[in-house]
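Example record

The entry below shows one chain as it appears in the dataset: sequence first, then structure tokens.
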Amino acid sequence: MYGFRIEYTAEGGKITLQPREAGLAGLYKLTDCQMVEVAGSGVLGGVPVALVCDEEGLLKPNPINNLTACDLLAEMTNSAPVYLNGGGLAGTCSLVSDDNLRALTADEVAKITKALDKGGYPYGNSTFNVLGIEVNVIRAF
């Protein structure tokens, strides 16, 4: 099972596919925080999804607005990006299923990946380990 990690640094945004452990512990690890907040839910690539972020992200020293996550949230919900209203999402965010915030299946990942490509999001190749086996996810154009 998987989730998408959405990071934003001074150099720009990056979306990667990551393995997702079960339960809240897996969601905290994917989102790189200790307290999560559902920023919004909608549909991406025909898949009901939720965008989860660090609830205290804006309270940390020198927060960086995650513009990639803001744009993704706007696309999922057919709305304007929250940064246009003076709001924002800071820190690492994650994209998971809107069905009880569970991990995404391989079929859902394929549909979402097509939507990310269509939207021009900074989704790149991902490498991670599962049970000691290195898995490489390579984008095919």
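Notes for this example: The longest strand covers residues 36-44. The longest helix spans residues 106-119.
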